[in-house]
């Protein structure tokens, strides 16, 4: 048997069993419904490999080549079902392109130009229509369906637009771009079918996919708003009929949801950190406001004014106490030994009964009372620490005297 | 310097959460944005976990708040009960006011975080409709909005102040009568949804038709 005869047999079988094949393709996702009447047809189609048993359950389904053939052939008519405008426009474009090629082959210049002009107009119109539809949908989205104010109307409008977008996307998916490329490659004048139209289709598809995402999000939000409003109504109705006291104690349940376990506000705790400079202003404000009453003015009537009258030529002898003497000796010691001397180290020089803090105060006071000239001889440091509370105090633990 | 700022924010956010505050972009934008970042959110959550608490985000992602991890002691139970009891007590007048505001503003949707509310607009609607004025008077009769004030203007003013006090509204400035709804409404709706589901509060029209109910049985 020749290949030609085999081919003819397959084509005849396709024609003979067309109804069964189309029923399987359109209504049964490719599976052939097995009945007593079509048992012979199934056997015949199986022999010609038009149908194959499915490995999962043994049911016969259309061979993938047959499905692809039908997909390809029915693309335009399915497109017309989904979107008549786009379907017809694509059909018209393909028709004009073919007519243009035919006119060119027959060297009919006038027809050739006429078809080409028409083709260009149709391509531009289709591109504009796709982009225009996407833009119109985006305008509605951007205005948050501003043409209506009621929530229910917005939801209805959103649903309607969603359907429209889905249909448009489906119709764009059905455009046979391969066929457009194939026909566009036959002539340089037809390149608009390879570039311009596919670009418009891609752009439209992208815009519409974005719109679909946004519309779904908006619909979710609108539905949420609607359900919240309903919950408010229902709760008020519940309160009218009963009282919130009738609500069960959810805290007693086995699983208490987080929404019922919001924390009880914790009281302010802890102490202020006096070393944190960020708190300085706040603490200063607090300190300023602690004393509410005015400070009483100091009594002045009993104060005896200091007399500035000294007898003429009178000599005032200042006594150098043992304490002052001891304090000075520390400064002299530092100069004599040419090294830094610690006040605490020299505490044994202090007269008996003097506490360490008085001793250190004495050293500080001596240094403070020096003339600028004398002070330039010594470098005095006060190792210590800042007070634990923000009161501006510095607690010196030692006085270290060092000759410069 | 940057570390100091981050550390300062961490402390501020944790303290606010422990004090029962609700953090949203309308009450504290900086803290809200801080918690929006996963790293910081995790560090806050880790800290809270150590003291038996955790960071919660409302279902719509509008507001952060702090909740206990579990009720594992009598003290904790008392604290949770006290707090939840207070919330429930406040719920009825709050929801009634919400419904009143929706009716006055002729809005189908309830107040959402970020919505702007103008006291003047509400007042003129209430003063223009006796039913709304009666509803307002009923709301201020007891509960958290209770007041002896008699005119709708004073009553509404009292409620708005209370809503600001409870962090549901934030005035545009100290003396303004225009407010922004905060993210705390989102928490309220989550709570309402929980109660709605658990108490089957749906209206009769939500119930399945007779034949479907039979199928369910």
Describe the structure concisely for a colleague.
Chain A is mainly alpha-helical. Helices cover 57% and strands 5% of the residues of chain A. Chain A has helices at residues 3-16, 18-27, 39-47, 64-82, 84-105, 109-142, 151-174, 177-184, 196-241, 280-290, 322-337, 356-369, 372-375, and strands at residues 51-53, 60-62, 341-342, 378-381, 384-386, 394-396, 400-403.
Kindly describe this structure.
The complex is a heterodimer of chains A (404) and B (217). By secondary structure, chain A is mostly helical. Chain A is 57% helix and 5% strand. In chain A, strand 5 and strand 6 (394-396) form a beta hairpin. In chain A, helix 7 runs antiparallel to helix 9. Chain B has 9 helices and 6 strands. Chain B has a 3-stranded antiparallel sheet with strand order 1-3-2, with helices on both faces. A 3-stranded antiparallel sheet of chain B has the order 4-6-5. The termini of chain B are far apart. Chains A and B meet through helix 9 of A and helix 1, strand 2, strand 3, helix 4 and helix 8 of B.
Radius of gyration of chain A: 51 Å
Structural class by secondary-structure content of chain A: mainly alpha
Global mean pLDDT of chain A: 81
Strand content of chain B is 5-15%
Compute the number of helices of chain B: 9
Which protein chains are joined by the largest interface, and how many residues does each one contribute? A-B, 39 and 50 residues
Radius of gyration of chain B: 20 Å
What's the CATH C level of the largest domain in chain B? Mainly Alpha
CATH topology of the largest domain in chain B: Arc Repressor Mutant, subunit A
Q: Class by helix and strand content of chain B?
A: mainly alpha
* Widest sheet, order of strands of chain B: 1-3-2
What is the helical fraction of chain A, as a range of percent? 55-70%
Overall spatial form of chain A: elongated
Find the count of extended strands of chain A (DSSP E, 2+ residues). Answer: 7
Shape of chain B: globular
Could you state the order of secondary-structure elements of chain A as H and E? Answer: HHHEEHHHHHHHHEHHEEEE
């Amino acid at each position: 048997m020749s290949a030609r005869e085999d081919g003819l047999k397959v084509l005849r079988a396709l024609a003979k069993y067309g109804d069964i094949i189309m029923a399987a393709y359109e209504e049964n996702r490719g599976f052939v419904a097995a009945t007593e009447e079509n048992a012979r047809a199934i056997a015949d189609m199986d022999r010609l490999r038009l149908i194959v048993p499915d490995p999962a359950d043994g049911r016969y389904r259309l061979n993938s080549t047959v499905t692809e053939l039908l997909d390809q052939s029915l693309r335009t008519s399915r497109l017309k079902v989904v979107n008549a405008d786009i379907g017809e426009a694509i059909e018209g474009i393909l028709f004009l392109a073919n007519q243009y090629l035919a006119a060119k082959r027959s060297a009919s210049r006038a027809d050739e130009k006429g078809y080409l002009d028409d083709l260009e107009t149709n391509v531009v119109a289709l591109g504009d229509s796709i982009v225009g539809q996407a833009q119109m949908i985006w305008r509605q989205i951007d205005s948050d369906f501003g043409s209506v104010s009621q929530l229910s109307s917005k939801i209805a409008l959103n649903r309607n637009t969603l359907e429209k977008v889905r249909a448009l996307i489906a119709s764009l998916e059905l455009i046979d771009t391969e066929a457009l490329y194939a026909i566009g490659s036959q002539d340089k004048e037809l390149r608009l079918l390879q570039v311009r139209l596919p670009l418009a289709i891609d752009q439209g598809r992208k815009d519409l996919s974005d719109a679909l995402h946004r519309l779904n999000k908006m619909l979710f939000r609108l539905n949420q708003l609607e359900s919240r409003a309903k919950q408010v109504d229902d709760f008020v109705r519940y309160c009218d009929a009963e009282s919130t006291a009738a609500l069960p104690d959810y805290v007693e349940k086995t699983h208490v949801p987080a929404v019922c376990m919001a924390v009880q506000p914790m009281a302010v705790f802890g102490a202020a950190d006096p070393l944190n400079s960020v708190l300085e202003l706040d603490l200063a404000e607090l300190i300023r406001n602690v004393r509410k009453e005015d400070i009483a003015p100091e009594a002045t009537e009993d104060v005896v004014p200091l007399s500035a009258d000294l007898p003429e030529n009178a000599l005032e002898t200042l006594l150098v106490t043992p304490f002052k003497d001891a304090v000075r000796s520390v400064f002299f010691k530092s100069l004599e030994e040419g090294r830094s001397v610690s006040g605490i180290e020299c505490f044994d020089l202090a007269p008996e009964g003097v506490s360490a803090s008085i001793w250190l105060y004495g050293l500080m006071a001596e240094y403070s009372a020096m003339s600028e000239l004398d002070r330039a001889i010594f470098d005095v440091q006060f190792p210590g620490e800042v007070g634990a509370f923000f009161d501006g105090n510095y607690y010196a633990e030692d006085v270290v005297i060092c000759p410069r | 310097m940057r570390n100091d700022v981050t550390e300062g924010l961490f402390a501020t956010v944790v303290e606010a959460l422990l004090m029962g505050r609700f953090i949203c972009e309308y009450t504290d934008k900086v803290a809200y944005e801080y918690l929006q970042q996963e790293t910081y959110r995790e560090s806050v959550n880790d800290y809270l976990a150590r003291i038996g608490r955790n960071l919660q985000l409302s279902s719509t992602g509008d507001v952060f708040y702090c909740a206990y991890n579990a009720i594992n002691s009598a003290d904790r139970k008392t604290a949770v009960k006290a707090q939840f009891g207070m919330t429930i007590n406040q719920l009825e007048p709050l929801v009634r006011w919400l419904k009143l505001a929706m009716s006055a503003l002729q809005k189908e949707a309830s107040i959402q975080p970020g919505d702007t509310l103008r006291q003047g607009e509400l007042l003129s609607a209430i003063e223009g409709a006796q039913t709304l004025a009666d509803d307002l008077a009923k709301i201020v009769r007891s509960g958290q909005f209770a007041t002896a004030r008699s005119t709708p203007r004073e009553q509404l003013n009292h409620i708005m102040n209370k809503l600001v006090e409870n962090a549901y509204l934030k005035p545009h400035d100290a003396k303004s009568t225009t407010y922004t709804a905060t993210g705390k409404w989102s928490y309220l709706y989550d709570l309402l949804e929980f109660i709605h589901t658990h108490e089957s509060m749906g209206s009769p029209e939500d119930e399945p038709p007779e034949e479907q109910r039979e199928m369910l049985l």
